[in-house]
Sequence to fold (204 residues):
Amino acid sequence: LNEYSSKLLENAVNELSRLPGIGKRSALRMALFILKENPVYAANLAQSIVTMRNDIRFCSQCHNISDKEVCEICANPKRNSGLICVVEDTRDVIAIEKTTQFDGHYHVLGGVINPMDGIGPNDLTIANLIKRVGDQSVEEVILALPATVEGDTTNYYIYKMLHLFDVSITSIARGVAIGDELQYADEITLGRSIANRLPFDQNR
Ligand SMILES: [Zn+2]
Fold:
């Protein structure tokens, strides 16, 4: 017998502890909680995860996580399609939506350029962003990527690809927590930095 006295418990703990920020201790607490609850909870939990994993897709326009071919933000006629906010991932969309300061569309890159991790422009959705700007009447592209070397590299790459188009390129204030820092981002600051965005300066 292992330290958990049950192979079944050990398997569950191992799977749960793969989740980000969840160590073996927390995973054990979760597993024991699930065992105490009504079995219906375990079934609903498992079912919701499997269904999400199998059925979720990415919006064909903005690449945000969506239940449909086109996400609710892109499909909403009240939103300004001439304004595209470029973000790293879905967490940023959620954070910006929470500020209620932005009524445009998004473009989710799915990461940032990171040569150390072997992530180049072609691994991201940058080509589709260029296509959107070329095809639609986009007036402004707002860069809202993390204030890191990788974020800066990505900003500059996008700027280089877009600066010949008739579109203004702006950026949210530097130092505003976005991306991995998101959970600490203060909504008022983030909202303000979107409202008071500045022209993108490549030399910054
Ligand atoms: Zn969309």
